[in-house]
Amino acid sequence: TVAVVPFFNLSQERAVDGRRFALAYFTELQKTPGFQVIPLGVVEQTMFDHQLEMNNPGDVLKLCQLLNADAVAVGAVTD
Questions:
Q1: By CB atoms within 10 Å of each CB, which of 17, 46, 67, 69 scores lowest?
Q2: What is the rounded distance in angstroms from the CA atom of residue 31 to the CA atom of residue 12?
Q3: pLDDT tens, 41-52?
Q4: pTM of the predicted protein model
């Protein structure tokens, strides 16, 4: 079971939507046999409810526990 979180924008382009990239990754990961992917909205709501920041390793682990996930996919958009 995998939770995908909104991607960080590390590019020079400020308008990059990390959520859109996370949704695309979520969609592709769902096509892979053997993976159960938690809906992005559920992940985001849990992050919001518990005030979790994905740049903090402790918060990533807490998110994993709260969602009963085996992994959290954290990504970044770069130039």
A1: 17
A2: 31
A3: 999 999 999 999
A4: 0.89
